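go over my protein:
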Amino acid sequence: MSNNSNLFLSIGKPIKDEYGRTIGKVASFALTPNGKFDAVFIEFNNGQLSKQPMEHLKFNGAEVTFISKITSQANILCDQIPLIWRKNQALKDLAGKNKISPDLYQELHNSFEGVLNQLKKDAQVITDEAAVEIADCEEEIKTLSYAVVNLELEHEIGQVNEEAYKYAFAMLQDTLKRATAEKSALELTRSKLSNILLGDTLPTQKTKTVVESTNEANELPEPPVVVYVKEIGKAGI
């Protein structure tokens, strides 16, 4: 509780998203009767007050970072799907060794399959949402690129003085870098989820996990998950 109490020091502090953009500030916290931090109230830059789960924020001293729904949900799914898959495979192994009764196996197997199917549906939803966000980033990058070109043209013909040009160019470049970083992160998230879903249909393929396995998972069969990390370079103007 002594560590959690330090969170009150973040009230009024700015909140940045994962890419460095200031999106609002901490307004207050919601606590359970036993003093556990349950949620945080955020005043966004548009004046809207919103209650967000604690897991959507990362506190590092005076720095407060807002973790998007896509990122937080994807992290959970990338952990849970391989774990449930391993448990289901381990259950099949136990049944094959006659260590559990057929009736108990079927009951547990149906339970694991139900959970796994729901997680896969959730993963598909997040994948689709990531695709929409990627398209928005691409449109933003395109718009910013046009803005830089037009700035260069007006500066070249003397319509924009040197001081204004340097300020505007730095601002556009900074925004462009953030948009590119966001697009790269979203593409990586979509790739992880897509390959988990693809790997689940290829049980004979030798692959590696998306996230680090828990101690329990390490003792179970490796799931068929493939990760392709795509490196996105800096955007050129």
In short: The CA atoms of residues 77 and 123 lie 7 Å apart.
